[in-house]
Automatic annotation (TrEMBL):
One of its GO terms (biological process) is carbohydrate metabolic process. InterPro entries: 6-hairpin_glycosidase_sf (IPR008928), 6hp_glycosidase-like_sf (IPR012341), Ssp411 (IPR024705), Ssp411-like_TRX (IPR004879), Thioredoxin-like_sf (IPR036249). It holds the Pfam family Thioredox_DsbH. It comes from Oscillibacter hominis. The lineage of its organism: Bacteria, Bacillati, Bacillota, Clostridia, Eubacteriales. This is Thioredoxin domain-containing protein.
Length: 663
């Protein structure tokens, strides 16, 4: 018999709808029941493509013995991707109490939402020194019945610690923050296989984007070498899907061979700009090809017919981790024939011995010979065979901030690779957000699935969407995207800024009140909303010339600088905003009938972070004057175009030929 989760839209919650556990979704009803029934709350947080969430579900939540023990608790399931605010609060608790975190996240708390116990995965029974869920639940029940004050005191102390005002000094950004970030990455760089630190290895694309910026700002060739080594190694490893394109979540070994096989939208969306910028700088076609194959993976596997992008695909297939992605030589030869099959096995490391549980993950590690080029028909044959062999669960939620990262990636791919498919997908997703994920007050929702938009947009949604709109403006020079970016950034400031202590909260001022109001700055799997906000505010200030936006940008930069000065390498996306503010910057106004091809070509071929480009025409002049009033004084030429270039507060005489610009 299905439980209360049967009416939810989250794929993760629906995975648990037939559990014998009497799950509630996060709701006032659940906490009212806890109070009325005088029971503690068992909170379990995870997501649908999480391998260890599946393991714990199978071991414990599908188990009648555990379900019987959980009758002494009010049990709540939360999808961390749907409710990152709840996840952020209780992940802070877990990290504070245990020194680590992850998913599934397991919390015990009072009916007032005050936590007194935290952990991650628990087996059903204790083993090798790790307590089992059975023992945890029995002990918690005993203490609730016989020593409740101890639990309540613990919950009060933990909550009080969460609510402490950790105000830091606001300081001006300094170049030393950038050099310290670079030095930290340099010291932790793996010279053999790229990446930073040991296994498990995460791609962390914002580290690579920071190093590319540092290379250009400081002319530091080693920064570029670290990026190239990492991009090359990842593209050769098993973390990259050589058959279907796209990257897995992370590698469990040093050399990127054995991935944790789940594929997430945000990883792929962030890796595309890293490969594209490396392609712009080095002109190496291999980087363009990886970006294309990753973009094609998103278009083929993760794109909804209505225009949005799905969250990701599971690590498990047919009940086994990675089974979908591994092969034997006989399988390959049965699909491609003996000659082509043997060639693929030789080029992509498919052996009788295998490299993962007796089978082989395709990879190019250590290969000297050229691999097959994108478009080889054999890839398509293997792709179709793989799809028919096993099925992968797909999390078909559409999350605003992850979709915004994907819009950025595909807009850049459309421009740099000159492929209209990517542009079309980016613009379609943007229209989908405006038409299907926006409420009657023109405020965006966080999630869309199965015809329903739900959950108020959070900081990351507003910040990354504003950045995506700025990217669409940069790649199309359509002023309507700039107007919309300014609207979303204005909402972000009004709804999320902490005017007393600086920075931006994760939840809006009128959002559901939790026991704490988190303010995230660390750049983890994805850049934080505060880091993205800093970039957005600075770029809008440059484009509009408006002192209001400059003041907002300065406030955020000073807040960030005060917070990160002891460990700036943990905030590499914030460091992009710092670089924007400290290195020479140019403003270019191009006036004419249409954006000239020379300008578009320059933006395609160069990482143009150090230049803000405005295009003014007779058609957009009045709207542009509202957005960037300074443009009102720039006359339109009678013929052709005029370029007006300013740098660091000094403007040059206008020129009518792009080649005359000192770019």
């Amino acid at each position: 018999m299905a439980n209360r989760l049967q009416n939810e839209k989250s794929p993760y919650l629906l995975q648990h709808k037939d559990n014998p556990v009497d799950w509630y979704p996060w709701s006032a009803e659940a906490f009212e029941a806890a109070g009325l029934e005088d029971k503690p709350v068992f909170l379990s947080i995870g997501y649908s493509t999480c391998h260890w969430c599946h393991v714990m579900a199978h071991e414990s939540f599908e188990d009648t013995e555990i379900a019987e023990l959980l009758k002494d608790f009010i049990c709540i399931k939360v999808d961390r991707e749907e409710r990152p605010d709840i996840d952020a609060v209780y992940m802070d608790v877990c990290q504070a109490l245990t020194g680590s975190g992850g998913w599934p996240l397991t919390i015990l708390m009072t009916p007032e939402q005050k936590p007194f116990f935290a952990g991650t995965y628990f087996p059903k029974k204790g083993r090798r020194g790790q307590p089992g869920l059975t023992e945890v639940l029995k002990q918690a029940k005993y203490l609730w019945d016989h020593d409740r004050e101890r639990l309540i005191d613990a919950g009060n102390q933990i909550t009080e610690e969460l609510l402490k005002n950790r105000k830091c000094d606001s300081i001006d950004p300094e170049k030393s923050m950038l050099s310290e970030s670079y030095e930290f990455l340099r010291k932790n760089f793996d010279p053999d296989f790229g990446g930073f630190g040991g296994a498990p290895k995460f791609p962390t694309p914002h580290n690579l984007l920071f190093l590319l910026r540092y290379y250009r700002c400081e002319n530091e060739p080693n920064a570029l070498r670290m990026v190239e080594k990492t991009l090359d190694a990842m593209a050769r490893g098993g973390i990259f899907d050589h058959i279907g394109g796209g990257f897995s979540r992370y590698s469990t070994d040093d050399k990127w061979l054995i991935p944790h096989f789940e594929k997430m939208l945000y990883d792929n969306a962030l890796l595309i700009p890293a490969y594209l910028e490396a392609y712009q700088i080095t002109k190496k076609e291999c980087y363009a090809e990886v970006a294309r194959r990753t973009g094609d993976y998103i278009l083929r596997e993760l794109t909804d017919p209505e225009g949005g992008f799905y969250c990701g695909q599971d690590a498990d297939s047919d009940g086994e981790e990675g089974k979908y992605y591994t092969f034997t030589p006989n399988e390959i030869e049965s699909v491609l024939g003996q000659e082509k099959g043997a060639e693929f096995c030789r080029l992509y490391g498919i052996t009788d011995r295998g490299n993962f549980e007796g089978k082989s993950i395709p990879n190019r590690i250590g290969q000297k010979a050229e691999g097959w080029r994108m478009g080889a028909p054999e890839f398509e044959m293997l792709y179709e065979y793989r799809k028919q062999r096993f099925a992968l669960h797909k999390d078909d939620k559409i999350l605003l901030s992850w979709n915004a990262w994907t819009i950025i990636a595909l807009a850049q791919a459309g421009s740099i690779l000159q492929d209209d498919r990517y542009f079309s997908a980016a613009m379609s997703a943007q229209r989908f957000i405006e038409e299907s994920m926006t409420d009657e007050h023109n405020r965006p929702f966080h999630r869309f699935r199965d015809g329903e938009a739900a959950h108020a947009g959070q900081l990351d949604d507003y910040a990354v969407y504003a950045l995506a709109l700025l990217e669409l403006y940069r790649t199309t020079l359509d002023v309507n995207y700039l107007k919309q970016a300014i609207l979303r950034a204005g909402q972000m400031t009004d709804l999320f800024e902490d005017e007393a202590n600086g920075g931006y909260f994760l939840g809006a001022r009128d959002a559901e009140r939790l026991i704490a109001r988190p303010k995230e700055l660390y750049d983890g799997a994805v850049p934080s909303g505060n880091s993205v906000a800093a970039v957005v505010l600075g770029r809008i200030a440059s484009l509009t010339g408006d002192m209001l936006w400059q003041e907002r940008s300065d406030r955020q930069l000073r807040f960030i600088s005060g917070q990160v000065r002891e460990y700036p390498a943990g905030y590499t996306f914030s460091m992009l905003a710092v670089a924007d503010s400290l290195y020479p910057h140019r403003e270019l106004v191009c006036a004419g009938k249409n954006p000239p091809e020379e300008l578009k070509e320059y933006l395609r071929n160069n990482p143009a972070d150090d230049i803000s480009v405005i295009f003014k025409s007779e058609e957009n002049g009045s709207l542009l004057a509202e957005i960037a009033p300074f443009t009102l004084n720039y006359p339109l030429p009678v013929q052709a175009v005029l370029y007006y270039l300013c740098e660091n507060g000094t403007c040059r005489a206008p020129v009518d030929d792009f080649v005359k610009l000192p770019l």
